Amino acid sequence: MGVVRKTQSVSLVLEAFKADSKAISVIDLVDRFNDKINKTTVYRVLDRLEDDGVLHSFLGVNGIKWYAPCKDCSEHKHSDVHPHFQCTDCGKIDCLNVDITIPKLPNREVVGAQVLIQGKCEACCN
Amino acid sequence: MGVVRKTQSVSLVLEAFKADSKAISVIDLVDRFNDKINKTTVYRVLDRLEDDGVLHSFLGVNGIKWYAPCKDCSEHKHSDVHPHFQCTDCGKIDCLNVDITIPKLPNREVVGAQVLIQGKCEACCN
DNA sequence: AGTATATTTGCAACTTAGTTGCATTAATAG
DNA sequence: CTATTAATGCAACTAAGTTGCAAATATACT
Ligand SMILES: [Zn+2]
Ligand SMILES: [Zn+2]
Ligand SMILES: [Zn+2]
Ligand SMILES: [Zn+2]
């Protein structure tokens, strides 16, 4: 079950993602709200928002958790699986609106894929 | 700098990868050798073997570290970047000998990609 | 073989990301 | 305005991985 009550914590977190639609790491969010929202609450709010199809999560380099806004998802149906791009210079991550074709694998049943492309982002290329 | 001395720990770790050429998680290795090799040493041996191009590492689901034997790599030149397949049933990971084409991204300089395909492995499909 | 040297190891303590249990707070319904 | 129950804060915990340092051991040299 996802978000049931519109609490202050939920509003604050949603605002953060409305500001720019980039991905934000949990580390960053916990740090950013350290005087407003308890660490545990940040984790739990993100969890609920993901349940509701408002945010989606994935792992960046080093295995830390990131969240980004969903496009057309709903509760229990995350339809926006897409690659992510992490900049090796600034560390920021974007969701990519491109399709990666996963090759057919004999004798295996593919259900999904996590793709993290690495390189220099637009800002860091200049 | 990688492996300089052929120690007992190095031999044990290499044997583990010779047995079957699948990927092995660090967790598994630490556990498997818990009465023979200290946890710290396992991490350090794996580190050195990766430096030497003998093993390569990547992150599985949940961000835990896995290692697998390299094909044609040498010190400081890991040439075998390839997708990995993790079974959602048994959790095991294989290196895949297929190419994934990363689309051209405007205004970005791509240097690599980490691809983790998820699904049912050959063994678990039966 | 015996010894010197530097690499490697084990241990304990630490760091960091994330989780759990429980008492308290606060959002919503009636 | 009150009752109900979701949500929060806190402290303590777990688990993966790291660090510093003294002790052990592999290798080179005599
Ligand atoms: Zn950048
Ligand atoms: Zn995304
Ligand atoms: Zn399987
Ligand atoms: Zn591999």
Automatic annotation (TrEMBL), chains A, B:
Q: Tell me its cofactors.
A: Zn(2+)
Q: Name a Pfam family for this protein.
A: FUR
Keywords recorded for this protein, A-Z: Metal-binding, Zinc
Molecular function, one GO term: transcription cis-regulatory region binding
How is the cofactor bound, in the record's words?
Binds 1 zinc ion per subunit.
Answer whether the UniProt record assigns the keyword Ribosomal protein to this protein: no
Q: Where does Zn(2+) bind?
A: 87, 90, 121, 124
An example Gene Ontology biological process: negative regulation of DNA-templated transcription
Query: InterPro entries per the record?
Result: FUR, WH-like_DNA-bd_sf, WH_DNA-bd_sf
Give the PANTHER family listed for this entry.
FERRIC UPTAKE REGULATION PROTEIN, ZINC UPTAKE REGULATION PROTEIN
Could you identify this protein by its name?
Transcriptional regulator
Species lineage = Bacteria, Pseudomonadati, Bacteroidota, Flavobacteriia, Flavobacteriales
